[in-house]
Every structure is written in C-alpha cells, then in structure tokens.
Write a structure and sequence with these properties.
mainly beta, seven-stranded antiparallel sheet, six-stranded antiparallel sheet, 42% strand
Length: 180
Amino acid sequence: MGVITTDGSLSAIDFTIGNVYLTLNGVGFSELDAGNDFSMITVSSNALSSSAGNLITTTASVLDRMTLLNDTRTNKQILSIRGSGTAVSADYLATQNTSAQKLLTGITSAYDMSSYYNGTAQGTNTYSGTYPNSGLIFGRLTSSSSILNGFIQEIIIMPSNLTADIATYHSEINGYYSIY
C-alpha cells in the first residue's frame, strides 16, 4: 500500500518504499471501458531509470488492459492500451529518463488516443478491441518488475475528452505544482 507523505511541501502518495501499490479490487469504472471518451491527468515522479513506472492500470490481467505510465525506458510510453491481444501506445516524442516531477496526460476519444508531457502534445495512436476493467491499480502493473518507484501527487480521471480544454487544465496544475 502507498504511504501518504509530502514531496517537497505538497501531499503525495509515496511508492518508493519497496513493492507498494494501491488496489481497488472489483471497482471498475465504466467510464474507462474501451471505446469511451476519458481523460487521465497525473502529477508524478519515477526515480527508477529504465522503468515502466505504472501509474494507473485498469485490471490485474497481464494481458489486455489500459495503463497510464511514467515511463523512463526507451519504450517512451505514456498511455498504453492492449485490447483483445493487440497493444498500442501514445508515446513521448523523446525518451524522458528523468526522476523529475512530470505532468502526464492520456486522453481517449472513442478508439483514438493522445498523450501530453508537461503541457506539450506527444504521441497519438488508435487502438481496437476491448480490455477488462474490473478494478484499478495505482503504482504497479501486475508484477513487482513494473512498479512505480516515485510519488503520485495528483490524479484526475474524467469521463470525457478534455482535449479542447487541456491547456487550461495543464496551466492551472502547473501553476500549483511549478513543474515546468
């Protein structure tokens, strides 16, 4: 389980003390089902280089799932969706192997997906198929090799496509956290 602490002077969930994570079993949010419009915004850090840094995952399945990542690997993933056996992602434009705090956003509009890093548009992609949505996991995927070793300070999950207003959200969040 993550520990509530501070990162700097602001509240955070601390995932740096071993294989810790938060799980909401049996609590799937239909807003995050495949094909629905949704937006996820996080403020987080990942102290591990070459780490997936899983922030939010929709299921404990090792196969089909939706995951928002703070990826420091060369994979460069921000929003990854594996639907009906096929994985695609909306990635960073360049590898971000830093432990610094990041403002990361993943947005879907039907089966189209887009990502943002520190207020700047990153990769886009289109996915197909479905994935289980039987719970939420914060701070890891399904194994200890996919843990987040860092902090999560903000999580916003909205059942809508925020693309039209995303600059306003990013500006307000950055104004509070002074990320970039």
